[in-house]
Design goal:
- It catalyses: acetoacetyl-CoA + acetyl-CoA + H2O = (3S)-3-hydroxy-3-methylglutaryl-CoA + CoA + H(+).
- By secondary structure, the protein is an alpha/beta fold.
- It is built from 16 helices and 14 strands.
- Strand 4, helix 4 and strand 5 form a beta-alpha-beta unit.
- The chain is globular.
- The structure holds coenzyme A (COA).
- The site of coenzyme A (COA) has 23 residues, from helix 2, helix 6 and helix 7.
């Protein structure tokens, strides 16, 4: 069977709850200097769901919007994949709930992919491979509500969803070979099946992220460097980078680490002495130390700085305002790049690398190329409008048996609220009568008394 050509991204739609916390206000409520959450973590705001929304409602909303935006006939979809780690049922997949949008086409393949923040990427890879074989259209959904019980991790929560239309003759296609890395680590996991909070070893999780980045980038350059056409290949040779963004400082650290990795990879070659010589003092630093060394981080950040503004900043707009949306995070970064690239979408006729990481862990790095104009992809995103429409609040919402929140807190239509989309949502709400906080209500951070 011949492979279908130019399979890739044909459409993208994002969603995030408009209810948000300003990081400055959150820092004040947490009794820490504002600089820790703003400059320290690099975040501006954090989106969170009220009691009207849950993983199913935000997934329905984003898929419905994608279908309207791209004029998708439900009968044309052959595969529907969901990546999420926001588990509200230990058996039934979110994908099956989404089938209420496809009642006239019950023949759609696919189900949920779960591995922390990586499930959405696995879903995308599955959809791309399926389309290459079958030639049909697929929808990939990545959606999560990121909540932490640990006080230190709380400012790195968030919420969001993305839906991606995958199919042939796409303007954005994969190029080269994708590189995967996976290992058995306990940096972030959810062993308590009755609660939504992860067990997280935050600082260790940053090291796991960087270790995965090291492995992926080194192998990626070896396998795909020739496509970039520069010699030697360094991070500066690539047009754009799109990172999984648990919080912005992690993205800054990841990007600057690529320059340290360039030096390590090339220092034994004829290019060695000329590659980032200011990083030479760190040549013999033990690997483990490099993950935490402040002096190395500062030196690498200085080398990376001239490139950060054009190659990375455009993709950080949405994640800095919505926080970590786990599986959706990297695709919120991609959507931000599509809308915010310096020179506009037309300037994107080039290449970029995408790096996706999921704790536990799974990671991948791959390259996508814009081979045709993407105006139709970007025209309906309205990321700036949606950021402007964010409504910041510090109010604590009490558990209740009926959703008390005004629907106006949920952003642009079409939207779904949990009470109208899922009988299990009603059951969850009723659980609050027994003193158990339902997931959707727990997502309203109890950081200040009602006011
Ligand atoms: C990220 C995390 C570990 C930070 O927790 P923490 O120990 O409370 O925070 P830190 O003391 O490390 O401070 C965070 C940053 O703010 C900086 N900072 C602290 N106070 C500051 C201030 N007043 N002004 C400016 N910066 C400040 C710190 O120097 C640090 O920066 P660095 O990382 O460049 O060294 C925690 O939020 C967490 O566990 N998050 C979830 C884990 C996660 O998302 N992992 C990634 C999975 S992919």
């Amino acid at each position: 069977m011949s492979e279908i050509q130019n399979v890739g991204i044909r459409g993208i739609e994002i969603y995030f709850p408009h209810r948000c916390l300003e990081m400055v206000a959150l820092a004040e409520a947490d009794g820490v200097p504002a600089g820790k959450y703003t400059a320290g973590l690099g975040q501006t705001r954090m989106a969170f769901c009220g009691d009207r929304e849950d993983i199913i409602s935000i997934s329905l909303t984003v898929v419905k919007r994608l279908m309207e935006k791209c004029n998708i006939d439900p009968k044309d979809i052959g595969r529907l994949e969901v990546g999420t780690e926001t588990i509200i049922d230990h058996s039934k997949s979110v994908k099956s709930s989404l089938m209420q949008l496809f009642t006239e086409n019950p023949f759609i393949e696919g189900c949920d992919q779960i591995n922390a923040c990586y499930g959405g990427t696995n879903a995308l890879f599955n959809a791309l491979d399926w389309c290459r074989l079958h030639g049909g259209l697929a929808i990939v959904v990545a959606a999560d509500i990121a909540l932490y019980g640990e006080k230190n991790a709380r400012p790195t929560g968030g919420a969001g969803a993305v839906a991606i239309l995958v199919g042939p003759n796409a303007p954005i296609v994969m190029e080269g070979t994708r590189v995967a890395f996976s290992e058995n680590v306990y940096d972030f996991y959810k062993p308590h099946l009755s609660e939504e909070y992860p067990v997280v070893d935050g600082h260790f999780s940053l090291q796991c992220y960087l270790r995965s980045l090291d492995a992926c980038y080194t192998r990626f350059c070896a396998q795909n460097g020739h496509l970039v056409g520069a010699s030697p290949i360094t991070a500066a040779s690539f047009d754009y980078f799109v990172f999984h963004s648990p919080y912005n400082k992690m993205v800054q650290k990841a990007f600057s680490r690529l320059f340290y990795l360039d030096r390590q990879r090339l220092r034994g070659t004829e290019h060695g002495p000329a590659v980032h010589p200011t990083l030479a003092p760190f040549d013999d630093m033990p690997l483990q130390e490099t993950f935490t060394s402040k002096t190395l981080q500062e030196a690498a950040t200085a080398v990376a700085a001239p490139f950060y503004a054009t190659k990375v900043t455009p993709s950080t707009r949405l994640p800095t305002h919505t926080g970590n949306s786990y599986t959706a995070s990297i695709y919120h970064s991609l959507a931000s790049l599509l809308e915010n690239a310096v020179g506009g979408p037309a300037a994107l006729l080039g290449k970029r690398i995408v790096f996706s990481y999921g704790s536990g862990s799974c990671a991948a790095m791959w390259m996508m190329r814009v081979r045709a104009p993407i105006d139709r992809l970007t025209s309906g995103l309205h990321i700036e409008d949606q950021i402007r429409a964010q409504q910041c609040t510090l109010r604590h919402l009490h558990a209740a048996t009926q959703p008390p929140t005004r629907l106006s807190f949920i952003s642009r239509r079409p939207n779904f609220s949990n009470s109208e989309t899922s009988p299990s949502a009603e059951k969850r709400l009723n659980r609050s009568e027994n003193g158990v906080t339902p997931p959707a209500l727990a997502s309203c951070l109890p950081i200040a008394p009602p006011g």
